[in-house]
Design goal:
The chain is an alpha+beta fold. It is built from 13 helices and 20 strands. Helices cover 26% and strands 28% of the residues.
Length: 431
Amino acid sequence: MRRRSVLVAAGALLSSTAATGRAVAAPATAPVLDHRTETAYDGRTYTDLSAQAGAVKVLKSGTILVTFRTTSRAQAMTLLSASDPTHTASNITLSVSAGALQFSARDKGVLQDNHLTRTMYDDGEWHTAAVTVSGGTTTFYADGRPVHSVASGTFFSKVSGLTSLNIARNVDSDHPGGEWFFTGGIRRVAVYQHALTKQQVAEQSVRVDLADFGRIATILNSDTPATWVVTGDSITHGALWTNGWRSYVEHFQERVRWELGKPKNSDFVLDTGVSGSTTNDLTAKFAERVAAFSPRVVSVMLGTNDVATPGIGVAVYRANLLKLIASIRVLPGRPIPLLQTPNPINTGTWPGREALADYAQTMRDVAKARDVVLVDHFARWTADYGSTPPANLLGDGLHPNGRGHLLMAHTMIKALRIFDPTSRVGKLTIP
């Protein structure tokens, strides 16, 4: 049986989340296992570290840390697994399961623990994942940031008979040749006998995400309901030119509130975009369009009208964005700002907006200066289509149509690492 079904049945143009650099300091205590040979695995190959199984099988708490990148997608791909090869279903395993990070333990067929993230890491980029177990808490880290915590204390010592230790496969009596093989590259696998701190995980990561990106990932992985406010102008509003198809906000809502499963259906995604809006309008109406809803995340996409409004040059636009970010961050609960550049437009059809690229660049500069997560639609469209977007993505040369909104939704969902190409939203096409 496929691993995910077994365990469940038993129990870069997309964002500004890129690396801010990697510190070089080592953690206070050296790992008990540190395999640093970068290897490409093809779904059949593996690295047998069973000679070192004795060093890890006694650990009651600690950290598993792996740097990897995927080259395919599968229901279960092992990063590191310790197992009893003489029994079936006796293992403790960190894996990439249909894109998600999964940490599971079984002892003689009895499921001890099984935890997965909702955020996904099978995008072909290098990631560092870590799982720490200490004090009855299991915490997942991705790219230097904590992204998920659960009440659980299972580590190697909770599974008996661990004599097989492998990178890129799991071994048991039913699968003596291995199962759940990995496809991609694994650069490093380390096991520590203590739970690394946040700083130590960041120091050992190949890149470190923005703190706000880690906070968004934590919200996506949490079972606590969250309110997302998505605001902007007519593009966010989804007015008229979608021709009955869903807007990018509605696709995002479907992905979060339905496809991520319960209890994320108790999240709320509120669209407070208003046709014709500028950053001046949003700053003036901030209380009723943002603050009133007690948000956890606030997305702002504006600029298409600012560029054509007298008195809102790039300096005013920049000042307004800075004010909005500051206003979001001081709301109760410290909501997370999220900036999204607008799509390019056909300036031949819409004269007077030729400087829209300057406004997109200003938003990038503000995001970088204030460490704000950015979804860069303008860069994505320009990279794919050049300076003038194709007519089949726009309803009137400015507003995205149904296809344009779907592209924006996919860009946003990928940037936030919740894209699943097998989901209805992920595989949706518009004829």
